[in-house]
Amino acid sequence: MKSSVQLVLVDIDGTLYGPEGVPECAWNAARRAKAAGLHLSICTGRPGRGFALHYAKELDPEGLHIFESGAVVVSGLGEVVRASTLPPVAYRRLLGLSRAYGIPFEVYTAAGGFFRESTHPDLLFHENMLGLSAQQKNLGEISDGVVRVQYVWRPSPAWQAVREEIVRMPEIELHEATSPGMPGVVFSSVTAAGVSKRASAEWVAMQLGLSLSHCAMVGDGENDLELIQAVALGIAMGNAPDKVKRAAQRVVGTVEACGLEQALDIILSELVLH
């Protein structure tokens, strides 16, 4: 009997992308997986533009790819096919918290906008990592179409105060992640309530006539944990926290040790052997 996995969901930071970028072994493995008939989808907190969109097109140009922590689904051609926006009242409150506590803040819109009003060094470095240039403007002038905001922070009492306010807001979801490209920095994204990698993965699978029981997820962060637990085969990268590794069915190497190649080869071996 064949393995039930037909769709593989792949995180970017810490899974596809590591301290030295994307290793060639990952692309080689992706090509083998595609040739074997697997569907591949990016599943990330990053926006579906810049380097992330390039990665999606390289991974599977015919696929559907999940960005903005599940708020946006983009085709391999770069077309937005699904978007969930933040309530305007919630957006204004989140912006107010950033301003009041001085936490660097980014705004992403369904139309592809990327905005900031600060020139904080972490925001500028993040733009380079994304391969995108944000537009600097008064963020209070953005009234609708916001799919996600992101606090880019380093540990501080100010962030803890902001986080306590955020988790009390029922109309939103908080997603937190890190990247090997920016050690010591945490990215806390906020989307509308009900938006998540898992919810969008279910939608993408449904477009292919599948369910999560036909999916594998390869990830490294706590924001991947829910999906790793929900799919048929959850695989944690070697750089994942222990909590994520314990929840996964398989653990592979780090990005630089070709962990994604190992994960895809595990899936392919089960397709061949069962």
Automatic annotation (TrEMBL):
Domain of life according to the entry: Bacteria
GO CC term (a single one): cytosol
InterPro entries associated with the record: HAD-like_sf, HAD-SF_hydro_IIB, HAD_sf
Gene3D superfamilies, sorted: 3.30.1240.10, HAD superfamily/HAD-like (3.40.50.1000)
MF GO annotations: magnesium ion binding; phosphatase activity
PROSITE patterns cross-referenced by the UniProt entry: COF_2
Protein name: HAD family phosphatase
Organism this protein belongs to: Meiothermus ruber
